[in-house]
Design brief:
alpha+beta, five-stranded antiparallel sheet, 189 residues, Immunoglobulin-like, elongated
Amino acid sequence: MPSWLWATEILSPNVAASLLIGIISLGWAQAQFAASVKPFLTYSCLFHNAPVTALESASKKIFRVTIQNPGMGLAIVHNMTYRIGVAPNRARSDAPKLEYCDAIKELESHKFKYGKDFVLGQMSFGAVIAPKDSLVVAEFPLEMAQSLPQCDIEIEFEGILGDIYSKEIYCIPRQGIILDSHSPLWLPS
């Protein structure tokens, strides 16, 4: 091997180190940007004594399920499905996934009236949950919420970078609705 090959310098050590640091910085900046535009969906289930509600119920206590996007990215909805369990002994995984109209029919077939006993939210394909926004996805009077063993909503959504996410919302808590002063759902009247 010729000796001049070893003497050839393509990049000086300082330039090579600067180039390496630049490439690492670009990768880090891209990862930070991707994380900053990622949607992050969460939800809350609380009782409200508020008179303003979508329900036409005489009940004073309304169980409201709200979905929030505290992240900085848009959440673009692809699909929304529901799991309704009306039999208390039915395994939760046995409940079929239903589209919006089928979920309404399932609840109405068990003598629950839409608008009086429950309100379910619907988001169609392409609906957007904006950053720092929140939407009410379900409301039940206290009596209805305690008599319904399962009402789950699964939302498939996409971030603006094309990543697909899924969020499952348990409208009725898994342990049921327990009203005592130690419950996180408890709101004093």
